[in-house]
Amino acid sequence: MKKPPPFDRYANYRRAVQSPDVDCRFISDAYRELRGKRPHVLREDFCGTFALCCEWVRRNKANRAYGIDLDLEPINYGRSHNLPELRPEQRKRFHTVQGSVLTAKLPPVDVEIALNFSFYLFKSHMMLTRYFKRAALGLRRDGLFIVDCFGGTDCQQDNIEQTKIGNLTYYWEQVGFDPVNNGAVFHIHFKRKGEKMRERVFTYDWRMWTIPEIRETMLEAGFRRTHIYWEGTTRSGGGDGNFKRTDVGEECDGWVAYVVGEK
Q: How far is CA 153 from the centre of its chain?
């Protein structure tokens, strides 16, 4: 009987959670919609294994990317697994930095992003404002800052979702919700067919920021205006992966949206 490959938590995270090609397409489309031209220089905060940055430099010979993360482990994983997928010329247009998104100094960019709800680790208005101010300083004059967020009534209670992807089942579990500080803890579990569940492969202790809070903080941090890109709905009631700019959301158990700040 063939022995299964070693369990790779970062590869399974990418398989279950990330869609770098979809994210890069949204970033480009939003920039063209708001600025009337293509963006070429990207900065990804909390970049992890920087799969998105690699996809960005692959998309266009004029594209450059910078990835920043405080944790050296995912950066080293990306250097040994994702970076080798790039051609030598593409690697020259990508740079990684181990450091804090609050202090790292890099050239100004067209677009700065913080996706997968990564900025939710900032739990106070003071820290979120500090981060958003730093993001504004890192942008060119016509730059955009893009973050994603999620919410809905399901996010105010314990719950667990599971998604089957081939021989892998991905579990997203929320443990509790504190209405005093909008805090919640989330776990990612994985189970491969024929194996025991691997529990708490990733854990996140977050504040659930609301869209009004995010928009108001961006304005306080120096952004001129903000936009909401809301995900469409399938016939069955789930998200369809298509995001359109809007001023009105909809009531639902769970939603995902992007908030875009214009410098």
A: 21
Residue 126 contacts residue 134 (beta carbons within 8 Å): no
Per-residue pLDDT reduced to its tens digit, 59-70: 999 999 999 999
Burial of 211 (0-12, 13-18, 19+ CB in 10 A): middle
The backbone torsions φ and ψ at residue 174, rounded to the nearest 5 degrees and listed phi first, read -105, 130
Higher pLDDT, residue 167 or 236: 167
Find all residues with CB under 8 Å of 37, minimum gap 6, and list them: 31
Q: Are strands 239-246 and 225-233 parallel, antiparallel or unpaired?
A: antiparallel
> How do 41-45 and 239-246 pair as beta strands?
unpaired
Tokens of 36: 């009337």
pLDDT digits (tens, 9 = 90+) for 210-247: 999 999 999 999 999 999 999 887 766 666 778 899 99
Cα four-point dihedral sign 28, 33, 35, 36: positive
Residue 224 in contact with residue 106, Cβ under 8 Å? no
CB 257 within 8 Å of CB 243 = yes
